[in-house]
Write a sequence for this structure.
């Protein structure tokens, strides 16, 4: 079940998943719209009867010098990146708790471990995701629910390619990686797949850094 503000993009992603023989349903929904999120989660429950896994992966990262940053822009980034995690998780959590089982994975950023200029609201929001993860993990664990975070490094996605069409940033960051290649979406997907599997049932409240060894924690 794919929640996305961009309905056509969610549809394309669902079609790509279906082409691999898997079922996928797009839900055009703004993940910072509380009534919309509530309705979408209810639709999933009505259709499937349960939700086992939630991956919170919304994120925007405009580059703005701090002195030029407006409160409206600050709020827009924090709302998209952090409020969405709260809203979707809050809508899903009661159903997981009722069943006594759930896997929640929140996507933060490896940039949080470094600190980059002109990304103040982005890093603040993604740091909040890590704090949210740790607190909820402590509360959710007794109910059979694990909550973990992933901090991806520079991953070769459409968004990062648009941001760095020349590849200079990839080269700069790659030079500091232990693994000398570009990060791929599959690297993050495989980490998620492990964290939501039965094999990871004793892992919770953790932040897994997936950046090719650019930073080691």
């Amino acid at each position: 079940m794919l929640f996305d503000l961009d309905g056509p993009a969610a549809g394309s992603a669902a079609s790509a998943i279906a082409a691999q023989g898997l079922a996928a349903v797009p839900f055009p929904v703004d993940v910072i719209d509380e009534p919309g999120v509530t309705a979408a989660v209810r639709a999933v429950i009505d259709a499937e009867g349960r939700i086992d896994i939630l991956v919170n992966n919304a994120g925007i990262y405009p580059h703005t010098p701090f002195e030029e940053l407006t409160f409206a822009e600050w709020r827009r980034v924090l709302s998209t990146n952090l409020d969405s995690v709260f809203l979707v998780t809050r809508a899903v959590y009661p159903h997981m708790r009722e069943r006594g089982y759930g896997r929640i994975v929140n996507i933060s950023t490896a940039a949080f471990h470094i600190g980059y200029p002109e990304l103040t609201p982005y890093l603040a929001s993604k740091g909040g995701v890590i704090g949210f993860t740790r607190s909820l993990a402590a509360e959710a664990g007794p109910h059979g629910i694990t909550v973990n975070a992933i901090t991806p490094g520079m991953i070769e996605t459409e968004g990062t390619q648009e941001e760095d069409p020349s590849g200079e940033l990839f080269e700069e960051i790659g030079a500091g990686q232990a693994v000398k290649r570009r990060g791929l979406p599959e690297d993050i997907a495989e980490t998620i797949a492990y964290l939501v599997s039965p094999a990871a049932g004793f892992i919770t409240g953790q932040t897994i850094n997936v950046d090719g060894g650019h930073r080691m924690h």
User: Anything to note?
Assistant: The two ends are 33 Å apart (CA to CA). DSSP finds seven helices and six strands in the chain. Strands lie at 2-4, 26-28, 53-56, 102-107, 145-152, 207-210. Residues 71-99 form the longest helix (29 residues).
